[in-house]
Amino acid sequence: MGCSKWRAAFNFGLLKAQSRLPVFLTMILIFTYLFYSLNGYCDSLPRPVFDRRSRNEVAPQGALGAHSASPLREQLEKGASLSGNISIANSFGSKKFPQAIIIGVKKGGTRALLEFLRIHPDVRAVGAEPHFFDRVYDKGLEWYRNLMPRTLEGQITMEKTPSYFITKEAPRRVLSMSRHTKLIVVVRDPVTRAVSDYTQTLSKSPGLPTFQNLAFRNVTAGLIDTSWSAVRIGLYAKHLENWLRYFPLSHFLFVSGERLVTDPAGEMGRVQDFLGLKRVVSDKHFYFNQTKGFPCLKKPEGSSRPRCLGKSKGRPHPQIPSEVLLRLRDFYRPFNLKFYQMTGHNFGWT
């Protein structure tokens, strides 16, 4: 009797254990699945990148959103200083001082040149004019470097501020940044350039005196007023003399503003060679806009229309008396000839 009870209890316990075994095995399988799933998810997350030079932890590209306000993003935007020419290094690239600067001249075609250059995959440029070397130099070089876009190895950093060419202190300041900086000057017939300069100012200040009243100290005597900036900028030889005190002529490229209109691909070829770039920007990128009177960039892939410069470019010039223009040409002639001699290039301004 006792053995029967014991056997019955044993069989009941065995049956109960057998009924729990599938549940137990199922739970083991579920936990195993969850473990490997979570492990694989963690492995797929972006890992921090460490810059060997600075040992600073830098977030990967996918981890920083466009509107992130994390402390790390704020540190990147402020620009933690590193030695040498690199200020911020991460998976986006590095912020560097510009290796090339378009230093002049106003109303010569500098904006067109910069926009044409930005087609090139190896060129990264600041959009707005920084005016660092002429207006805000006291902010310091680190502040200036932090304005630059990040570049990858093999890319060059550029900026343009046309007023550098006529600023006395600019050459010395650029030299203190780097003696290897390449300098591009876009020049244009100084008479046409002066009229274009006046046209731009007139559009902002309709009550401006006439061109001839501003250009001459005495209209009757024909004395030119070189204190007027529209006239003074066109004295290219005098401005170049100042720059040549600090940089050799081999550091300069003088781009013809006229050829940039009539033969943009040819002039861009010279610019790309000077910068040590492969000739990527070519005829296939341009078409001539008859309305504006200068070349525009053809429609890029994925865009619904071609890209031309803004409405401020290609304004019709006011009528200037021919005798005023002739006197200005006579005034500029000796300065132009000297500029041709200094640069070794005849721009044909007659």
UniProtKB/TrEMBL annotation:
Organism of provenance: Oryzias melastigma
Domain of life of the native organism: Eukaryota
Compartments reported by the entry: Endomembrane system; Golgi apparatus membrane
Residue sites binding 3'-phosphoadenylyl sulfate per the record: 107-111, 188, 196, 313-317
Family classification: Belongs to the sulfotransferase 1 family.
GO MF term set: [heparan sulfate]-glucosamine 3-sulfotransferase activity
Signal peptide boundaries: none
InterPro entries hit by this protein: NST/OST (IPR037359), P-loop_NTPase (IPR027417), Sulfotransferase_dom (IPR000863)
Cited SUPFAM superfamilies: P-loop containing nucleoside triphosphate hydrolases (SSF52540)
Name of the protein in its database record: Sulfotransferase
Active site per database record: 107 (for sulfotransferase activity)
Membrane-spanning ranges: 21-38
First-level EC class: transferase
Taxonomy of the source species: Eukaryota, Metazoa, Chordata, Craniata, Vertebrata
Domain Sulfotransferase span(s) in chain numbering: 98-333
